[in-house]
Write a structure and sequence with these properties.
Layout (H helix, E strand, L loop, with lengths): L2 E6 L2 E6 L9 H16 L5 E5 L4 E3 L18 H10 L4 E5 L2 E3 L1 H8 L2 E5 L3 E3 L13 H9 L1 H10 L3 E2 H5 L9 E3 L3 H12 L18 H14 L4 H15 L2 H17 L1 H15 L18 E4 L3 H12 L4 E4 L3 H20 L5 H9 L1 E4 L10 E4 L5 H14 L5 E4 L6 H5 L8 E6 L8 E6 L5 H13 L3 E6 L6 H17 L4 H11 L5 H8 L1 H14 L7 H8 L12 E2 L8 E2 L1 H14 L8 H21 L6 H11 L9 H8 L1 H11 L9 H9 L5
Parallel strand pairs: 2-3, 3-5, 4-6, 5-7, 6-8, 7-10, 11-12, 11-14, 12-13, 14-15, 15-16, 17-18
Antiparallel strand pairs: 1-2, 8-9, 16-17, 19-20
Helix pairs in contact: 1-2, 2-3, 4-5, 4-9, 5-8, 5-9, 8-9, 9-10, 11-25, 12-13, 18-24, 19-24, 22-23, 24-27, 27-28
The chain binds nicotinamide-adenine-dinucleotide.
Nicotinamide-adenine-dinucleotide binds next to helix 12, helix 13 and helix 15.
Length: about 700
């Protein structure tokens, strides 16, 4: 049964019961209407309380029904809501916990609403590239005012019932309680049982619908919502609510909903959603494999990465031992961690107490023996095989049996690191991204000997600290950085062929990348790649030089930190200003090489960058470095600023078509000896897809 019916006194209780999140699937929708009729037909019932389970009213549509006829089977959610609105006896929604999407729209169909103060209320449809489809854009502005509704619907971010109940003039909640929400709803139902006419959200007027009050939302979308259709559509619908009768607004909302549902962006966002879930499963690891217990963690190295990694665990309340090679480095590392937390306090995101609680969970030490109690050790020392070998030799001596030993290496061979220990089954890679306390992506690198339960432990730990984990096999750069190298090559090739950094960046950013390749390089520091190149030039004097980048670094233009890189920067500003110095540098390069620069359309720039990712992604898939194409998509969305509404590079390839990708790549590479990934050739020939 997906709904349950009972009677308390003269109030019927209709309880949604469709685990795990009370999705409003077909059976549940039917159950609500049947229960409602039963209550309306009963002479022993004066009012109805509609409720969910403890901790979850309803999370909205039942995603397990997506793409099946049950999504649209009668009654649709709109009819269920209309039945509540039209009921001749009062309906009180009793909300505890999650109340999202269709769940909130359902509650807006009730005549009264009671919630526990911590309940989370939201319309997250934009996250799937959609707008609410059952009246949310018309109802919510009527109860919390247009500006608040616009902010909630365009961001998809939930708010607590308490926050919303505190809004001036709100009509969303009649009562917010801290105890038994059903008892409170029954009490209200008894009080208002005889009150007529019954209040309906649709009959209310919309406050704050003026253009001025929407400006903050519009501004946020302009800055952050570039190219993303659903939020802009949602904003327009909230504006409709302010000027149009409810019924017409509903029709408008329906039309927009269906258009978005049929569009590429929503398909891409739904793909991204399911891709993240798929990434949590490893086909050849038995499902019943239990994770090892991780109550304590040790981090080796308190540098850029070690400090950030440690913060993840402190945030999750997990004690961390942090090991350094010198007191000075330890003090510096701890100072930076404290400063990072202090920034959060300054921004009101953390209390001073919270800061102290976190730092108190941290045990700094210079003695490796102090990791002997740790369940998980994550090494983030220098990127040097000799250093890694000596750290893991030491860890093998001091770590307790069964401890998971992880390395945060970006490029080095996990199997070679594991081989210096007597327990290679306990070793794997946990590759975090900088800044490690912020970036969501975690590549979990499975060595040749990594035990199943060690892999499962790393995945579970990643989830516990809020990371998006993706499993990769061992290779240089794993999934993300190996593809990035090809993307960077494509960017440099464009530069050598006559495009400017600003043209390339703006094409990439208009495509939806968080930041173009040259602005990214200026942020990360051009000196890092330069140091690596100089080392390689020394090892192999015949190797081709990266002339333009080397000349840039010769001038000390390392990026934002030196106030100049591919762009100029005003002191204290991160705004990239096209630089006459770089312009001269490029001009003299072309003069010397006789490569009169050509101009590039934005479309071609994007294709050169993104198709390079796709080609390398195909190789990674083929070699088994990634388990599935969608894992590659997750890596690029979570870790590399690839626009989520394009679904990731491999999904994007499927929308463009492998044949088209291949044909363009062949053109771009004419005469340079490049060979396409065999898998790409295969898919192009058979019109196949990666996903
Ligand atoms: P870093 O130089 O900022 O920090 C390394 C720290 O390790 C230093 O504080 C050093 O004193 C300490 N250290 C060195 N040898 C040690 C030892 N034997 N025992 C204990 N501490 C030791 O470097 P980082 O940028 O934090 O990089 C650390 C690791 O993370 C490298 O393997 C790197 O490839 C990887 N990584 C870096 C990034 C990044 O963006 N910086 C991203 C992902 C992974």
């Amino acid at each position: 049964m997906s709904t349950q019916y009972s009677v308390v006194g003269r109030t019927a209780i209709l309880r949604l019961d469709n685990p795990p999140v009370n999705g409003l699937g077909h059976a549940t929708r039917q159950g609500i209407v049947q229960g409602l009729h039963r209550a309306l037909d009963s002479d022993d019932v004066d009012a109805v309380v509609l409720t969910g389970r403890e901790g979850c009213f309803s999370a909205g549509a039942d995603i397990s029904e997506f793409g099946t006829p049950r999504t649209t089977a009668a009654p649709p959610l709109g009819d269920v809501i209309a039945a509540l609105e039209d009921a001749v006896k009062p309906v009180v929604a009793a909300i505890d916990g999650t109340c999202f999407g269709g769940g909130l729209e359902l509650a807006l169909g009730a005549h009264y609403r009671v919630a526990t103060s911590g309940s989370r209320i939201g319309l997250p449809e934009v996250n799937l590239g959609l707008v609410p489809g059952a009246g949310g854009t018309q109802g919510l502005p009527r109860v919390v005012s247009a500006d608040v509704a616009a902010d909630m619907i365009t961001s998809g971010a939930p708010r607590t019932a308490r926050e919303l109940a505190d809004l001036q003039g709100q009509r969303l909640f009649d009562r917010v309680v801290d105890g038994d929400v059903i008892a409170a709803a029954v009490e209200l139902a008894v009080e208002i049982a005889a009150v007529r006419p019954l209040p309906r959200v649709r009959d209310l007027s919309v406050e704050n619908a003026g253009a001025a009050s929407m400006n903050a939302v519009r501004e946020r979308l302009r800055r952050r919502g570039r190219g993303f259709l659903a939020p802009a559509a949602a904003l327009a619908l909230v504006e409709v609510a302010g000027t149009t009768p409810f019924e017409e607004g509903l029709a408008e909302e329906r039309k927009t909903f269906l258009e978005l549902m049929d569009g590429e962006q929503s398909a891409a966002l739904r793909h991204a959603f399911f891709a993240e879930r798929a990434a949590r499963k490893v086909p050849d690891v038995p499902r019943e494999t239990a994770a090892r217990t991780v109550d304590t963690v040790a981090v080796i190295g308190a540098g850029t990465m070690g400090g950030g990694i440690a913060m993840n665990f402190l945030d999750a309340g997990i004690p961390v031992v942090i090991v350094e090679s010198s007191q000075e480095a330890l003090d510096r590392g701890l100072g930076i961690m404290r400063r990072n937390y202090q920034h959060q306090v300054d921004k009101g995101k953390l209390t001073p107490d919270g800061l102290e609680r976190r730092m108190a969970l941290l045990t700094p030490t210079l003695d490796y023996a102090d990791v002997s109690d740790s369940d998980l050790v994550i090494e983030a020392a220098f990127e040097d095989m000799d250093v890694k070998r000596s750290v893991f030799t030491r860890l093998d001596q001091v770590a307790k049996p069964g401890a998971v030993l992880a390395s945060n290496t970006s490029t080095l061979d996990i199997d070679a690191i594991a081989a210096v220990t007597g327990r290679p089954a306990d070793v794997l890679g946990m590759h975090f991204f900088s800044p490690a306390n912020v970036m969501k992506l975690l590549e979990i690198v499975r060595g040749a000997d990594t035990a199943d339960d060690v892999l499962v432990t790393a995945m579970a730990v990643g989830q516990r600290i809020g990371k998006t984990g993706v499993v990769a096999r061992v290779c240089d750069g794993f999934i993300g950085n190996r593809m990035l190298a090809k993307y960077r090559d494509a960017a440099m090739d464009l530069l050598r062929s006559g495009a400017t950094p600003a043209e390339i960046d703006s094409a990439a950013e208009n495509f939806g990348f968080a930041m173009g390749p040259f602005r990214t390089a200026d942020l990360a520091g051009n000196d890092i790649g330069w140091a690596i190149r100089k080392r390689r030039y020394a090892e192999d004097p015949g190797m081709p030089r990266e002339e333009i980048s080397d000349a840039l670094c010769d001038m000390g233009r390392f990026g934002q930190k030196t106030g100049a890189g591919w762009y100029d920067y005003e002191p204290g500003s991160r705004q990239a200003i096209p630089s006459p110095v770089v312009e001269d540098l490029l001009a003299s390069f072309h003069e010397k090489r006789g490569t009169k620069g050509r101009t590039f359309e934005a479309d071609e720039i994007v294709q050169r960058l993104v198709f390079a990712l796709i080609d390398e992604g195909a190789r990674i898939l083929e070699e088994g470095i990634a388990l599935r194409a969608s894992d590659i998509d997750v890596v690029y969305i979570a870790g590399y600023g690839f626009p989520r509404y394009r679904g990731g590079p491999m999904f994007y390839a499927d929308t463009v078509g492998a044949a088209q990708v291949l044909a363009r790549l062949r053109r771009f590479h004419e005469g340079d000896g490049w060979e396409p990934a065999p898998l790409l050739v295969e898919l192009a020939a058979e019109a196949g897809t990666f996903n």
